Amino acid sequence: MELNEAIRRRRMVRSFSPERLDRAVLDRLIQAALRSPTAGNTGGTAWVVLEGPEETGVYWDATTDEVWRDRNKARFAGLSRAPVVLLSYASPDAYAARYAEPDKSDPRLAAGEWRVPYWFGDAAFAVMTVLLGAVDAGLGACVLGNFRGEAELAERLAVPKVWCLFCGLTLGYPDGDDHRSPSLGRPQPSPAGRVHRGTW
Predict the structure, then answer these.
(1) pTM for this structure?
(2) Does a structural domain hold residue 186?
(3) CA 145, CA 87: separation in Å to the nearest integer?
(4) CATH number at residue 48
(5) Rounded to an integer, what distance in angstroms lies between the CA atom of residue 88 and that of residue 97?
(6) Structurally, how many domains does the chain consist of?
(7) CA angle at residue 75 from 4 to 62, to 5 degrees?
(8) Do 168 and 67 form a contact (C-beta atoms < 8 A)?
(9) Could you give the count of Cα atoms lying within 13 Å of 178 in the half-sphere of its Cβ?
(10) Share of the chain above pLDDT 70, in %
(11) Mean predicted confidence (pLDDT) in 38-57
């Protein structure tokens, strides 16, 4: 698929078929994500791949509770059918160490004054790579914000403490039962108000 077409067709999918994904397709998406930009060639992002109900259930058990699941029954049913949950992790310590090296050393960064935390930027680049790759592979995907259960999830998955969860991604075949996000009803600023040439 042409890149511009993948960008145009990309959207969040919230209702999945439980059909398993081909391991080669999944591996291709992860390998592409590992080639996304990384500040200072740090490589301070990593993935945990959860496949099948037993593994993805660990994610849902740690990050949702009964109240949330009851309040969001339709949404939870659609999301939790996804056969894969990808967890995007980043290590702030890896970037602090890299930017203390002679070719990158900056006393402000050594003091923890990161105006833009590069680890989150790199994680976002990798996530977007997966989102576009999913469209190209005929799959659906949805970014899952991290609001609860991160420590429990990390413990259950044996994630070292230097890694922080950036987000989760559900991945699978759309089942055609998706519901429109209420966010899509918000008025959008015009492109002219978002692009400034030469000056603001």
Answers:
(1) 0.91
(2) no
(3) 11
(4) 3.40.109.10
(5) 20
(6) 1
(7) 100
(8) no
(9) 17
(10) 99
(11) 97
Question: What is the residue range of 145's domain?
Answer: 9-177
Query: Is there a domain that residue 63 lies in?
Result: yes
Give Cα 101 distance to the centre of its chain.
29
Taking 80 as the threshold, does the pLDDT of residue 194 lie above it? yes
Residue 95 contacts residue 118 (beta carbons within 8 Å): yes
Q: How far, in Å, are 155, 168, 200 from residue 160 at the CA level?
A: 8, 17, 44
Tokens of 138: 């005929």
3-state secondary structure the chain: CCHHHHHHHCCECCCECCCCCCHHHHHHHHHHHHCCCCHHHCCCEEEEEEEHHHHHHHHHHHHCCHHHHHHCHHHHHHHHCCCEEEEEEECHHHHHHHCCCCCCCCHHHHCCCCCCCHHHHHHHHHHHHHHHHHHHCCCEEEEECCCCCHHHHHHHHCCCCCCEEEEEEEEECECCCCCCCHHHHCCCCCHHHCCCCCCC
* Cβ neighbours of 111 (radius 10 Å): 8
In a domain, 190, yes or no: no
In the chain, the amino acid numbered 95 is Y
Quick one: what percent of the chain has pLDDT higher than 90?
Answer: 68
Give the residues across from 50 on adjacent strands.
85
- Is 177 in contact with 78 (CB distance < 8 Å)? yes
Provide the pLDDT for residue 10.
Answer: 86
Q: Does 1 fall in a domain?
A: no
Place of tokens 């680049």: 125
Taking the C-alpha atoms of residue 191 and residue 173, their distance in angstroms, rounded to an integer, is: 31
